[in-house]
Amino acid sequence: MSDTSPSMQALRAPQAYDRTKVTAGIAHLSVGNFHRAHQAVYVDQCLALPGQEGWGILGIGLMDVESERAKAKALQSQKGLYSLTVYPPEGASSVSVIGSIVDYMHAPDDPEAVLTRMSDPAIKIVTLTVTEGGYNTDEKGRFKLEEPHVAKDLQNAVPSTSFGYITEALRRRRDSGAGPFTVMSCDNLRHNGHVMKTALLSFARAKDAALAEWIETNVTFPSCMVDRITPAVGPADAARLNTESGLDDKAPVFAEDFIQWVIEDKFCAGRPAWEKVGAQFTDDVDPFEQVKLRMLNASHSMLAFPGTLIGHRIVHLAMRDPNVSALLDQFLQRDAGPFLNAPPGMSTDQYGDMLLRRYRNPAIGDQLLRIASDGAAKLPVFVQDTARALVRDGKDHRRVAFLLAAFTEYLKGVDDKGVSFPVVEPNVTPADFTLVKDPDPAKGIHLSVFKGWGVETSPAFVKDYARLRTQIQTEGAGKTLAALLKEIG
Ligand code: CS2
């Protein structure tokens, strides 16, 4: 993963605390870059405070794929240490070594060992970043018991899914008297605590009704809003980061300097003093979540799908395209913002402006294809409510129709210049891909990703969606966007 040269230094544990005294109190499922640049940082800062040494993280990789095994090897070889480089919009970057992941296990190699650790009373919180698509719910929010991995976990004693691991660990804890742990989703979902609870209880009910009841009574599922733009790290990024830091790190990460975490204070077995290191606790995460998902993540989608078709690949470079920048600005100020309550301390307009500044940060080089990936799981979470509200209130729906048209065309994997790009869409079905190829452009509105949005029943919306698709096909997304902006005025 990294270039090693003799002049590079080995990673050294943070000086702010004695890492040999730190033990795991949190088990985190699916340790992606975002977790390592966000939650693990809050925990790392907490560990420097007195009395917090029991809140280290046990990282657990769930996916039985080569890249995850490689990550496990890399992190284990560094005793869980890694470097994080943070880039402000201007000025110098800063590098720190994060020491909060004190243990790392690759679950497919030894599920029993993972269950033993998760059943240990020392673990008091289980957190997850398993992506928007990882909660296995349909468009009505129902848990899909028939999903093959879930169905297998319902049959087998040895789990492979997050639901299987958590349920079995909780069963053992109930039986041993170790008591419950808190289960907290850290994914970008509306009401992520509620989604987590519904998913886990549905799974547990299908497995063992009495256990499900115990979980419902004893386990808490706080919601939280998470925010920090964390790009993917390719081999070239890793080499650059190590050159800049002078560290020999097999798993470096980088991120913007902005960071935010708003958490519902509902922990059944205690929690770290995250409020002392910048996390905000609240009784109602919803307003924070709405603004973040419907403005940040939705405008990210607005950037990623049209932007990729136009030929852009990197966020801050795409933001230099005046039409892309105008599209995002209009979407934030005119489409998304007016339906939302302002976040504390600023208006939605100011929040929108702040987002555009964050996207323009030239040091980040965030990837449009990272943001685009699994769009079918993301768009319903990020854009559906705004689309529905625009149609319901008879407001201008054209920017959102353009986004949906662009997403549909993006599924073909070729941009305006004829350049192919990888389409990572595990939640787009073969039937959906067939619809995309249908000669009638209006048919695409029936893709399963748009089901239940309330746009397919609006003839005006479908008309704009279809004509924008046709225009993208014949003239390209760049020209279609330019014409649309002119038309809107
Ligand atoms: C992005 C997010 O994947 C996406 O769709 O919008 O990963 C985004 O970068 C984070 O939510 C920022 O907090």
Automatic annotation (TrEMBL):
Transmembrane segments: none annotated. Keywords: NAD, Oxidoreductase. Pfam families: Mannitol_dh, Mannitol_dh_C. Residues 26-276 form the Mannitol dehydrogenase N-terminal domain. InterPro entries: 6-PGluconate_DH-like_C_sf (IPR008927), 6PGD_dom2 (IPR013328), Mannitol_DH (IPR000669), Mannitol_DH/Oxidoreductase (IPR050988), Mannitol_DH_C (IPR013118), Mannitol_DH_CS (IPR023027), Mannitol_DH_N (IPR013131), NAD(P)-bd_dom_sf (IPR036291). One of its GO terms (biological process) is mannitol metabolic process. GO terms for molecular function: oxidoreductase activity, acting on the CH-OH group of donors, NAD or NADP as acceptor. Residues 284-463 form the Mannitol dehydrogenase C-terminal domain. SUPFAM superfamilies: 6-phosphogluconate dehydrogenase C-terminal domain-like, NAD(P)-binding Rossmann-fold domains. This is Mannitol dehydrogenase family protein. It comes from Lichenifustis flavocetrariae. The lineage of its organism: Bacteria, Pseudomonadati, Pseudomonadota, Alphaproteobacteria, Hyphomicrobiales.
